[in-house]
Amino acid sequence: MDRRPIGIFDSGLGGLTAARALRARMPEEDILYFGDTGRMPYGPRPAEQLRRIAAQDMDYVASFGVKAIIAACGTVSSTAGDLLEQYRLPVFGVLKAGVEGLARAGGTGPAAVLATQASIDSGAYARAFSQAAPGRRLLSVACPALVPLIESGHTEPEDPALEEALEQYLAPVRAAGATALLLGCTHYSLIWQAVQRFAGGGTELVGAAECGAAALGDYLSENGLTGGAGRELYYTSGSVEEFTAAGTAFLGRSIEGLVRQAPVMEV
Ligand code: DGL
C-alpha cells in the first residue's frame, strides 16, 4: 500500500486521456496532473529543447512527492526516453507501452503511427516497433496541425478544420491498408472517433496514452503500491479558467476548483 499520488504530465490536455484511463481502472488512486499549456505545443520544438523541458517537467511533478510518474506525452517519451529512466521513481512513458500495444493489434498487416513532428523525426517509434514486431511494415505520419487544433477546441467529429487535417494525414494510412494504427500523441485520443472514421473501420486503433496508463496500473498492482482516496489536483502553466473548462468538457465531469496555477518555466 502506498497512498502517495500518481504524477501525470503533458504539454497540455493530452495527458488527460491517460488520467481518464487510470481513473477508470483505479478509482481509489490520487492523481496529480501537470499540463504545461503555457509552453504548448511541444511538437515543433528541437530535440535539445525538449530534453530540457522533459527534465523540468519531471522535476516539477516529482516535487509533489508522487510515488510514480506517467510522462503522458509522446513527444517527451520519444525525445527524452533515456532521461526519464534516470529518476529514482518508477517512470512510465507512453512510447514503449504504445508500441507493444500496436504490435499486438491488427494481425500481421501493415501498421501505422500518428505522432507529432518531433516524435516522428526522432525515429523512436520506428526503432521500437522494429524490435517489437520485426519485419512488419510501419508507416509513420507526422501530424503537426492536430495538437493546436485540439487545444483550441476543434474536437467534434464533424468539425470542418479537423476533418480537413485528418483527411490529409489519414489518406496515406488508408492507401497503405494499415490494419492497426497507433495514436502516438496523447492528444489524439481526444479525437479517437474522428480518427477512426478517417482511418476506416478495418483499422484497429491503439492509444499510447491508454497503454501507458495500463502499464503503470499493472506495475502498481504487481508491486503492492496501490492506494489513495480518489483525489485529484490539476496544475496548468496556462490559463486556469481555460484548463478548467476544457478539462471539464473532456472528462465529462466538473473539475471546477481543482485546477491550480503552475509557473511557466524558462527553457
Ligand atoms: N500530447 C503531446 C504528445 O503526446 C503533444 C505534444 C505537443 O504539445 O505538441 O506528443
Descriptive overview:
It is a single chain. Strand 9, helix 12 and strand 10 form a beta-alpha-beta unit. The protein is α/β, with parallel strands linked by helices. The strands form two sheets. A six-stranded parallel β-sheet has the order 4-3-1-2-9-10, sandwiched between helices. The chain has a four-stranded parallel β-sheet with strand order 6-5-7-8, with helices on both faces. It is globular, with a radius of gyration of 17 Å. It has two domains: 141 residues, Rossmann fold, CATH 3.40.50.1860; 114 residues, Rossmann fold (3-Layer(aba) Sandwich). The chain is built from twelve helices and ten strands. The site of D-glutamic acid has 16 residues, from helix 3.
